[in-house]
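User: Could you check the structure of this?
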Amino acid sequence: MASLLENLTNPALLFFILGITAVQINNDLKIPETSSKFISIYLLLSIGFKGGNELSHSTVDLEIMGSLLLGVLLASAVPVLAFFLLKQKVNIKNAGAIAASYGSVSAVTFVTAISFLDFEGVLFDGYMIAVMASMEAPAIVVGILLIHLYCRKNQEEFGAPGAFSSVFNHSINNASVLLILGSLVIGYLASDQQAEGIKPFTTDIFKGFLAVFLLDMGIRAGSQLGSMRENGPFLVLFAALLPFCNGLLALGLASLLTHSIGNLLLFAILGASASYIAVPAAFKNAVPEANPGLYLPMALGITFPVKIIVGIPFYYYLIKNVVVIA
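Assistant: Sure, the predicted structure tokens are below.
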């Protein structure tokens, strides 16, 4: 338990809490939007490049292929489970949008988990970057398909003509996926000498930029907390508890593929995270009737803080003390 509490002193995490605190005390602390966008681009670029460079030293084997398959499976199955839980409480379009959010992944949560592993001195395999990237699109597509299926079943109107093809194109061609996969390929092609040449940019300043970015995310998350109180306890409990179950499921399945503590933690976090960037962007035009005032505060205002503050150290503690590591 002492080590669990010690993990909560990670400076990046404390800056995130500072951001939430600033909002709650009505402080006017803000990070300029242009700066926030630049830092998010930098973080994805850095993570992708380093992951690709590490991947270049590995050979493609059954563990890598199995991990990629597991990522896609989780991203496809979780929204189905979430949808059937949610459609009892909210309408079909909102259920599909929320389900897609919880099947897709949060790149920021993933980056924060990597920073946590670095803080703890724990290694992970570069192919986990590719696993993360592969999990963005399937959940969005499944969410749209579920809405389409149940709208037809209930004889409800579904979106505009071409809505599904539009969201499918967006889900596989959004900026974050392109950036992290492109950086992964560039890192894979770069020699060790070339990678060392830009190490001050990709590695040395990473933690500082992450601290500023999480300060900004704390401010954003804090501003969403109020709206969740208006939507009743079910959605709040759903946003807090379902991701924990998803993370445990991902951890259990991943333990059949890998014994790496770093890989297991990243799988747990990918299973437990929720998208608050890719999904809102995809659903904005494809299913405008879905209420972003529900799925955005759930993912950003509840799930993200819970995963950052409690989830990451909890899964790490669980992996080290309960999961059998060969």
